[in-house]
Design a protein that fits this description.
Elements: H1 3-12, E1 17-22, H2 26-34, E2 41-47, H3 51-60, H4 65-69, E3 72-74, H5 77-81, E4 88-91, H6 96-108, E5 112-115, H7 118-135, E6 139-141, H8 146-159, E7 163-171, H9 185-189, H10 193-198, H11 203-210, H12 213-226, H13 245-248, E8 263-268, E9 285-290, H14 294-302, E10 313-318, H15 328-337, E11 349-355, E12 364-366, E13 373-379, H16 380-386, E14 395-399, E15 414-415, H17 421-435
Parallel strand pairs: 1-2, 1-4, 2-3, 4-5, 5-6, 7-8
Antiparallel strand pairs: 7-9, 9-10, 11-13, 12-14, 14-15
Helix pairs in contact: 6-7, 6-17, 7-12, 7-17, 8-12
Length: 436
């Protein structure tokens, strides 16, 4: 409630908050569309592998020729980060290795970092957050994306004195989607490959949303930011609509599907027979809460909240999220208040590469959203104990042994150059967490 006042004060002082955007894709473009109507917020530089495409994106979201001319465009992200006139760096590339490198560069330069790149956060977020804390800068999840919105709801619940039973989001899910590939993905979206190509849709990115990987990455971010547990056997994706959250997502001991209280889970907008879930939460986020007393439980009913049959469990939810259109909240919160909109606190959940089919020695893995592996959420302690290969490092590495369908891949199953930046940082994080 004080953020806008702080922004207006900076505007009056002619000291705008200045951001560097790395990656002008869909998320970045949505953020850029709001900049002209947010007084006191400016984008000093946009770094993208295709600067001309970034300029085109700015024109497409309504930027004036004058604003475009006053903004620097570059293909050198590290140069953009190093600029003296940047307060906050927004990492929106979606590439885990690049995201880690950019985050570290921002932290070392004394810049706040807003990590749209959930792939990088799932791979090494705990270490990045620790480095940011040491440097006295903010490392933040991106408001508008589902993890930050869920973290906000969890914080609200805890500050109100409620027990958080479950927290998460909705998505479209069927078990068969885990085997989806870039060649089959458009069938599930009701598109032809030609139509998707004409619309500029990336098959691997959309396949990551479909095959469960993106959901796992986002729930790992939530678990690590909110000190919530993750399911031992991965996300279950139970079919559930808005009105049934409190009933379905209570502990099994109370008749629900959750192994225990205080866990993340993703609900499906489809029944297992392929039919629709009534009042589904496909685009939204939720938190299920437990009343700490009989009095609080009675208030749930008195004030019209949906509850389970016991009356002790209820849920709050947002049916939609606006991703990049809401990103300014993170940027301004970091610059003006020195606060994150959700930030990694511990290594609780991990996302590991899991075989989509029988894989053979000699095959090269094609990473997130590809034809070989999908990302499964699992407890970090179990991932470390198994030597599991994180999904963020399952790109362009060669198998040295066969791996059957459904099996979790291990570091020892692939040839991987551990001298690369991302692999080194991940190994460093694993060592720190194993010793803590």
């Amino acid at each position: 409630m004080y953020l806008h006042s702080a922004l207006m004060a900076r505007t009056t002082e002619n000291r705008p908050v200045r951001a560097a955007l790395i990656g002008a894709g869909k998320f970045g473009s949505m953020f850029l569309s709001q900049v002209p109507t947010t007084p006191g917020l400016e984008v000093a530089v946009i770094a993208d592998l295709r600067p001309d495409a970034a300029r085109t994106a700015c024109r497409g979201v309504g930027w004036s020729a004058e604003r475009i001319a006053a903004t620097d465009f570059t293909d050198d992200a590290l140069q953009a980060i190093a600029r003296d006139d940047v307060d906050v760096v927004i990492e929106a590339t979606g590439h885990p290795a690049a995201g880690i490198a950019h985050a570290l560069a921002a932290i070392r330069a004394g810049r706040h970092i807003v990590m749209v790149n959930v792939e990088a956060d799932a791979l090494a977020g705990p270490l990045l957050a620790e480095e940011a804390h040491r440097a006295g800068v903010v490392y933040s999840l991106a408001y508008g994306d589902q993890p930050a919105l869920i973290a906000e709801m969890v914080d609200w619940a805890r500050c109100c004195g409620f027990t958080v039973t479950a927290a998460g989001k909705g998505t479209k899910y069927m078990p068969a989607y885990h085997a989806s590939t870039p060649d089959t993905v458009w069938d599930h979206y009701g598109l032809t490959a030609k139509e998707a190509t004409a619309a500029g849709m990336n098959p691997k990115m959309f396949n990551s949303f479909l095959d469960g990987t993106k959901s796992a990455l986002e729930m790992a971010a939530v678990a690590n930011a909110c000190a919530l547990d993750v399911p031992k056997d991965g996300l279950a994706f139970p079919p559930c609509g808005m009105d049934d959250l409190a009933h379905v997502l209570r502990p099994r001991s109370q008749g629900g599907v959750m192994a225990a209280s205080g866990m993340v889970e993703v609900v499906s907008s489809m029944q297992r027979d392929g039919g629709p879930v009534e009042r589904d939460l496909r685009w939204g986020v939720y938190v299920v809460i437990e009343a700490p007393t009989d009095y609080a439980a009675a208030c749930f009913t008195q004030y019209g909240m949906n509850t389970d049959p016991t009356g002790r469990y209820s849920a709050m939810y947002k049916p939609f999220h606006l991703i990049g259109l809401e990103l300014g909240i993170s940027v301004l919160s970091a610059a003006l208040l020195g606060q994150s909109t959700g930030g990694t606190r511990a290594f609780t959940g991990d996302v590991v590469a899991t075989a989509k089919r029988d894989l053979k020695a000699g095959e090269m893995l094609d990473g997130e959203g590809g034809a070989c592996v999908w990302g499964k959420l699992m407890p970090a302690r179990a991932s470390l104990a198994a030597g599991a290969l994180p999904i963020g490092l399952a790109q362009d590495v060669t198998l040295i042994r066969d791996v059957p369908t459904g099996a979790v891949l291990r570091w020892d199953d692939v040839t991987i150059d551990e001298t690369t930046g991302a692999a080194q940082i991940r190994r460093q994080m694993e060592t720190r967490c194993a010793l803590s």
